[in-house]
Amino acid sequence: VASGGIGANFDLIRKNWPARLGTPPKNMVSGVPAYVDGRMLEITEHAGGRIVNRDRMWHYTEGLKNWDPIWPNHGIRILPGPSSLWFDAEGNRFGAPNFPGFDTLSTLEAIQKTGYDYSWFILTEKIIEKEFALSGSEQNPDLTNKSISDVLKRVLPGAPGPIQAFKNHGEDFVIANDLKELVEGMNKLAGNDLLDFIKIKEQILARDREMDNKFTKDLQVNAIHGARNYVGDKFVRVAKPHKILDPKNWPLIAVRLNILTRKTLGGLQTNLNGAVLGIDGQPIRGLFAAGEVSGFGGGGVHGYRALEGTFVGGCLFSGRQVGRYLAKGQ
Ligand SMILES: Cc1cc2nc3c(=O)[nH]c(=O)nc-3n(C[C@H](O)[C@H](O)[C@H](O)COP(=O)(O)OP(=O)(O)OC[C@H]3O[C@@H](n4cnc5c(N)ncnc54)[C@H](O)[C@@H]3O)c2cc1C
């Protein structure tokens, strides 16, 4: 069994949603293809396999509705740099460690505890140009095509093509030349009046003031300076620190962020050869599992709060374990 996780099955996600992450989201976008439906998990369980850690899952908090979907309800994750300001649905800025790109599961918990299943980035044109990348091979043609000249173009001014397409067509984007207009646009997009212009302005002003303070205690501003200490990130990934309310950095941009389903960290329990264990803890003869369906090889090789990007390695490794075992003719 190598059928992947449950990320496209929202009913199953809500049913298994862990209490520690607040209430399950009513609305989500799907970060995985429709076949990632968990059906083989149920079939294998009926065949006697044991499922463990059903409530272990990893969903992203920076999901965009894809304007050009490949699968139903297709969501794309923003891989954000550190400078966007992150607000909950009522316009309260999140505190540490819930800054862009910092701690996915902690931010997911913070968002779900607000009672709303979306949040907002507010940023400038200068930030989006440098700091937005999109997850998925089709969203990064320069890397996928191994084109060094295209990768180098990331240093040039202007948003990369796929980002610009989202700015033009994506339903989660609001772009304005004035903060009041931006906040009005955000309320209109959300279909409510939860955001108060003065409250948002005060918080952005407070953050902007810290741009002039060498000894700032604004931990996000510190993180921006810290990220720029690495020369690679300074050139291609982190915008030069600037004031969000300074019109020379505009237009202003707001992005509504949806919960985007992605990874399943529980699943079929196996032994170290990938043999599926039954309820009695004994291997079921002839039944093997690998990859996400077995929690990346029996319960999450890298742990529950695994580092970003370390998931596929466990899937490949568990497949290799099964392959090697079977190749020995056992
Ligand atoms: C956009 C995106 C970006 C990602 N980025 C990263 C990253 O940067 N780093 C990282 O570590 N991980 C990343 N992941 C996660 C990683 O890709 C998956 O965890 C991994 O591919 C899972 O591998 P798998 O072989 O277990 O399952 P899958 O790759 O999901 O393959 C399952 C296969 O089983 C087939 N199948 C399903 N049901 C049936 C059935 N009933 N009958 C027959 N066939 C069936 C499917 O067609 C599919 O071919 C990303 C995932 C996505 C979607």
TrEMBL record:
Gene3D superfamilies: FAD/NAD(P)-binding domain (3.50.50.60), Succinate dehydrogenase/fumarate reductase flavoprotein, catalytic domain (3.90.700.10). One of its GO terms (molecular function) is steroid dehydrogenase activity, acting on the CH-CH group of donors. Keywords: Flavoprotein, Oxidoreductase. Residues 1-312 form the FAD-dependent oxidoreductase 2 FAD-binding domain. InterPro entries: FAD-dep_OxRdtase_2_FAD-bd, FAD/NAD-bd_sf, KsdD_DH, Succ_DH/fumarate_Rdtase_cat_sf. The keyword Glycoprotein does not apply. This is FAD-binding dehydrogenase. It comes from Lysinibacillus xylanilyticus.
